[in-house]
Amino acid sequence: MNKRIFGIIILFVSIPLTIFAFNPSNGGEDLYQFASPEVLTDGASVAGGALPYTNAAHIAINPALTATEQRIVVDFSLTGLIANKGESKVGFAGHMGAIIPSKYGVFTGSLYCISSKIDYFDFGTNFVTRAGFAKDISDELSVGADLALGFGSAISANLDLGFTYGIGKIKWLPFLKDIRLGAAITSIGYGYNPETDSSLYTDKKTSAFPSPFTPHFGIAGTLLSAEKIKLGMSLDMSFPTFQNLVMNTGVQVAFMDVVRLKIGHELNVREIAAKTASLMPSVSLSVKIGVNTKDDSFLAKQGWQQSEIVPSMGYRNLYNGVHAASVGVTAHLGLKDTNAPEINLW
Q: For the chain, is the Cβ count within 10 Å smaller at the N or the C terminus?
């Protein structure tokens, strides 16, 4: 039996190695991370980030992350890519999406666009529509899947699969609480492969990016939880087409559950070897604002008289003097249900 399992693993790994070439655009593995300030600085966490916070853009990283959402969530964001070396060039990315819980599970819809012809970050123009479904199987386990269709400079059609699992504590990690594990396989299918001038290895044709058939593994948990401050961290590893290693770390601090500061850092082994990587961390700041509406307002009639609006902004320094600056707003409609159901026997 062990030999059979080992053989299946070898086959699972060898197929991407033999079928898919590896020469993505510089920064191509992060193509969907420019969607919002939160994703830009989350450390690409498939476990939900150091301190869990999710909007529709996160399903591109792990479609299971929305499974425990109780409220309707809508978000909108814009990201500018700005080059300040040589000829001035700009690019942009935009995202809008919604999370809709139901008694069957959680449905998510997402629309993403990115366009850039910046040297070293030539992504072409890519429009991606994404539909996801996630469900909590138990208090600990959540699963999810999404289908992404892209068009523009090239077409793409991909499936993403993922899960999260909350294990609480681990004896050999006594400093970490509320530990969550996550895993995902992304870009299963026909990848986005436009003709660009910024391939990682210039003597070869560009391959699809983000790299097809990429497994991700992550862990996240809380380091400190006091009355007015909460501190968490995350660690993720991904293996693009089993031909690269990308490590992401994230640290988040929440003050009074209102102000949240995020710092993320990425180490892409292939980009470091090719000397096209930035080793600077990314940072974002968000503020939670409570909203109370009048009883006769539209929101009140939907049961959303008390909601939360979260504006945010983020920054990431990219390679060769290119900067990514992002702003966004997320609305959580209604209040989270924190009370257990009452059961009357008679």
A: C
